[in-house]
């Protein structure tokens, strides 16, 4: 580079630094400015020999990230310092110890978190990417600012990707849409989320992006004219009330227009809400609510509102802190228009997220509980080793993007939950112990099933019992990541206890057959019963699935000396690969149908999606071809479920050895007082078995009854029948 070019570049770097201080959302004191200057000088020195792919000096990147952190996100001086230094430890001679000595522990922790994220393996494999995401979120434990600066870093990388190879652009853009946009959304950085999504689309589907971008430009003039026409109608009324306000149009993002076009299968011109009108008013905090509703009434005096489209996030802010009134009204020329009503404070929170919250709470000791609570929840889910990374990411993303509902506790406290939540999700959101001990639920004082979908405004009361414990069906009712993780963990613990008992039973039974209990025999048993791990074997012995009869068959196959001698000579012994793995695995060996999962029917697998055991599926009754089984995310699923809902049958792959099955027991006898009570007590209290349906009738002193039970296996059922026969007055007990 020539001297003149170097001088020009240095001037540009100095100009950028001054701008960084000028645009900071926070007021910076002298100490802050001193620290930022020191960080700036350190970064300039550290990166002096580095250049980016585009050819410009590398230092422009950390400065740009610091500017995003300072102005668009509005973080503090510590964050600006960390943003300037975010690549120093990874790319230059400086160490973490140097940073700690120069800038203190907090900055060093943030830089360390950012370095850890950057050093994660970048791989196309989804499960690896998911594992990386999980590790990345673990750094939240150190400091939330790590993630926020990482989002700013990603935003600047996305803004400056033009010089990169096409395949690299696609990879980074896909990762952005998969991970960073949902995160920005959850932290309340809506502007950044929108920009990340648009840039993600620009590099993953450039033709689509450019086409919509051009059309938005072409329709801008018409949009401005429409906003002017809309404003003219209400301005006089707003001015009469002495309100200070701005009316702006906000175009919908390219990404969301595209999503709408895809989802509704419409063209660009048919997307009716391509922009929203925003009324931002000035107010002190005391009058904010009052003025919002005043503006609402003025707008609806002039334009007819759509009553189903009122969103009141002023009375119940979103968990990201977002506050606003959204109404959809019939505007000029018969077009539906979304109108967003916000105070200046609400607008700042919508644009800056939590940072603006902190600013408005300065002098108030109370930290923002929303973010604290979110981080604690997230931490719990992350630290649960039982959840595999892909499941975790998928659930996390669902919970990030999901719409919220607001429900009340019996004491009148408000709780926010993702849309589609059930009483189980509510129970686990209050406390893990309450979730695990859930016996039932009342919604608005009425008993409801645990699968009941909650709606905004519901009052939910959880009925608990010391004896209650999760069963495998709960996973069908719980939707939030937290509840599902806790249920899975509890079911695993319960299975492990059964496996422990099974191990002791197996030792005794093998001794009776004169067979030693050692690893070689365990391996033989695992292979003989076609299982994977030793825990699988112990668990199935524990629940009685592998009983005396089956063990005798194993012993006789083993004791046929001649056969086993020849076998040993001609075949290698089979070793169970996962023999010592510490888990109980599922064998998806049966497809069951119906809401109670109690029917096994003839079926064929659909060719359009080729489901395999373990997939989430449903049955579809065809006209000529019996039941066809499709995956839930099959391309044809939506059409079948919407057009032929009456022909859909619930279906599920199960492990028949781990599933409760339905048995109907018939009883007859002489009716006497208290007989029904004795029968039900024997089943539920003494044998701990679930009764699903009970019906009794008495005719002229003779009683007959029918009880539907859920039992683990035949051995338990035989035990129940034998115990019931001993009850005084019972004449006959049989299985239907």
From TrEMBL:
Entry's Gene Ontology cellular component terms: plasma membrane
GO aspect biological process, one term: guanosine tetraphosphate metabolic process
InterPro entries: ACT-like_dom_sf, ACT_dom, Beta-grasp_dom_sf, HD/PDEase_dom, NT_sf, RelA/Spo_fam, RelA/SpoT_AH_RIS, RelA_SpoT
Coiled-coil stretches: none
Domain TGS: 403-464
NCBIfam families in the record: spoT_relA
The family this protein is said to belong to: Belongs to the relA/spoT family.
Annotated function: In eubacteria ppGpp (guanosine 3'-diphosphate 5'-diphosphate) is a mediator of the stringent response that coordinates a variety of cellular activities in response to changes in nutritional abundance.
Record-given protein name: MFS transporter
């Amino acid at each position: 580079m020539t001297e003149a070019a170097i001088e020009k570049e240095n001037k540009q770097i100095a100009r950028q630094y001054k701008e960084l201080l000028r645009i900071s959302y926070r007021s910076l004191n002298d100490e802050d400015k001193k620290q930022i200057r020191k960080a700036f000088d350190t970064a300039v020195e550290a990166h002096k020999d580095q250049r980016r792919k585009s050819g410009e000096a590398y230092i422009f990147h950390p400065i740009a990230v610091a500017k995003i952190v300072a102005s668009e996100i509005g973080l503090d001086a510590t964050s600006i310092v960390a943003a300037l230094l975010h690549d120093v430890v990874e790319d230059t001679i400086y160490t973490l110890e140097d940073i700690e000595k120069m800038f203190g522990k907090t900055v060093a922790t943030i830089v360390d978190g950012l370095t850890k994220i950057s050093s994660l393996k970048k791989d196309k494999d989804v499960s690896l990417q998911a594992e990386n995401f999980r590790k990345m979120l673990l750094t939240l434990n150190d400091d939330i600012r790590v993630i926020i600066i990482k989002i700013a870093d990603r935003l600047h990388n996305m803004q400056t990707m033009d010089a990169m190879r096409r395949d690299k652009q696609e990879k980074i853009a896909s990762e952005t849409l998969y991970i960073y946009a949902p995160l920005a959304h959850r932290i309340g950085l809506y502007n950044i989320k929108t920009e990340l999504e648009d840039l993600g689309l620009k590099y993953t589907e450039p033709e689509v992006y450019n086409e919509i971008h051009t059309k938005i430009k072409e329709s801008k003039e018409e949009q401005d004219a429409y906003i002017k026409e809309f404003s003219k109608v209400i301005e006089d009324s707003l001015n009469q009330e002495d309100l200070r306000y701005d009316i702006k149009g906000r175009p919908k993002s390219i990404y969301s227009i595209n999503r709408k076009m895809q989802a509704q299968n419409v063209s660009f011109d048919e997307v009716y809400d391509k922009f929203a009108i925003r009324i931002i008013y000035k107010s002190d905090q005391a009058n904010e609510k009052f003025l919002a509703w005043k503006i609402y009434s003025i707008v609806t005096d002039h334009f007819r509102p759509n009553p189903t489209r009122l969103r009141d996030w002023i009375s119940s802010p979103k968990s990201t802190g977002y506050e606003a009134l959204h109404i959809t009204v019939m505007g000029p020329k018969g077009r539906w228009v979304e109108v967003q009503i916000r105070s200046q404070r609400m607008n700042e929170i919508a644009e800056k997220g939590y940072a603006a919250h902190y600013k408005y709470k300065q002098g108030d000791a109370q930290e923002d509980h929303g973010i604290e609570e979110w981080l604690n929840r997230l931490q719990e889910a992350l630290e649960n080793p039982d959840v595999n990374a892909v499941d975790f990411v998928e659930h996390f993303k669902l919970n990030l993007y999901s719409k919220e509902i607001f429900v009340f506790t019996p004491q009148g406290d408000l709780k926010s939950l993702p849309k589609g939540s059930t009483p189980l999700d509510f129970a686990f959101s209050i406390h893990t112990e309450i979730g695990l001990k859930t016996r039932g639920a009342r919604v608005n004082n009425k008993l409801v099933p645990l699968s009941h979908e909650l709606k905004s405004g519901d009052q939910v009361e959880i009925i608990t019992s010391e004896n209650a414990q999760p069963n495998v069906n709960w996973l069908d009712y719980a939707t939030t990541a937290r509840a599902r993780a806790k249920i899975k963990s509890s079911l695993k613990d319960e299975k492990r206890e059964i496996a422990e008992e099974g191990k002791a039973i197996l030792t005794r039974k093998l001794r009776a057959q004169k067979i030693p209990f050692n690893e070689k025999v365990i391996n033989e048993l695992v292979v003989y019963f076609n299982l994977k791990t030793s825990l699988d074997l112990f668990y199935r012995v524990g629940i009685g699935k592998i009983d005396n009869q089956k063990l005798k068959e194993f012993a006789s196959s083993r004791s046929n000396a001649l056969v086993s001698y020849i076998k040993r000579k001609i075949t290698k012994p089979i070793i169970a690969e996962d023999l010592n793995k510490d888990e109980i695995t599922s064998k998806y060996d049966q497809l069951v149908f119906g809401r109670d999962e109690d029917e096994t029917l003839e079926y064929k697998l659909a060719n359009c999606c080729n489901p395999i055991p373990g997939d989430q599926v449903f049955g579809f009754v065809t006209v000529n071809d019996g039941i066809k089984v499709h995956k839930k995310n099959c391309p044809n699923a939506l059409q079948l479920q919407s057009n032929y809902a009456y022909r859909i049958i619930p279906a599920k792959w199960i492990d028949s050895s781990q599933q409760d099955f339905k048995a109907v027991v018939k009883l007859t006898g002489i009716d006497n007082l208290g007989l029904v009570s004795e029968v039900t007590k024997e089943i539920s209290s003494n044998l701990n078995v679930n009764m699903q349906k009970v019906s009794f009738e008495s005719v002229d002193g003779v009683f007959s009854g029918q009880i539907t039970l859920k039992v683990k296996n035949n051995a338990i059922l035989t035990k129940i029948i034998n115990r019931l026969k001993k009850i005084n007055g019972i004449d006959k007990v049989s299985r239907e």
